[in-house]
Amino acid sequence: MDSTNGRDAPTDTLGTVTVSDQPAGPCLWFGKHKGIPLPDVPTDYLLWALATVKLSSGIWAAAVAELASRGIQPPLRRESPSACWRGPCHRCGDRQVNYRWHEYRNGVRQVRASCARCGQQLGHAPRTSPYTDEADRHASETPTLDVLLLAEQEGVKIVSDGQQVHCEPWGKASEKLKDLVRQCGHQLAGLLGDTRGKGC
Ligand SMILES: [Zn+2]
User: Rounded to the nearest whole angstrom, what is the distance from the C-alpha of residue 66 to the centroid of ligand 1?
Assistant: First the structure.
């Protein structure tokens, strides 16, 4: 003990990886983040799991709530195999789909598909033409500036954790503002730094 001063501190990691005991919160049961409480699972991995893995409704809801707490609007549960980024919308049945850039907290950009009529998120389109062209066409050339101006107009606060921004309250933001935030969330967070807990 005296020769390994500090090296044998108890490791939380071991405790959370073990799933035989009831862990501290909902966990994924598969993959490289198996047994890790959802708050410690990277956003991209959660999004991937929601999009591709058949999750139980409990884990699904927990993962959605976790993403929401990070200011990320998760994809809705796929009701049927036909519910996808091509449309039609599985909520309202409309066939017209919007494609917009969505920048994640690690800077990766995806083409977010959503129903043109009701706004239902339909997942991600491939990052290829014509979806990327469509996203480019609707992208702002000055998104970070636009976010700040529009948020001010709408009385919405932009909160940044240094990696991603979100609107507070999210529900008060217009669709246009949400689109802009999705477009440049990571970039804007880099400009603002961590603003949590600061006055304004
Ligand atoms: Zn719809």
Answer: 24
- The residues whose Cβ lies within 5 A of ligand 1, an ion, are 89, 91-92, 94, 115, 117-118, 120
Q: Which tokens sit at 25?
A: 């919160």
**Using one digit for the tens of pLDDT, what is the confidence trace for 14-37?**
444 444 444 467 888 888 888 888
Are the beta carbons of 123 and 51 closer than 8 angstroms? yes
CA of residue 58 to ligand 1 center, whole Å: 25
**Ligand 1 geometric centre to CA of 82 (Å):** 14
C-alpha distance across the termini of the chain, in Å: 49
Enumerate the domain spans of the chain: 1-78, 80-139, 140-200
Strands (E), 19-125: 97-103, 109-115, 121-125
Q: How far is the CA of 87 from the centre of ligand 1 (A)?
A: 9
3-state SS class at 50: helix
Dist. CA 102 → ligand 1 center (Å): 19
Residue 91's pLDDT is what?
Answer: 85
Least confident of 11-20, 95-104, 124-133, 176-185: 11-20
Question: What is the number of residues in the chain?
Answer: 200
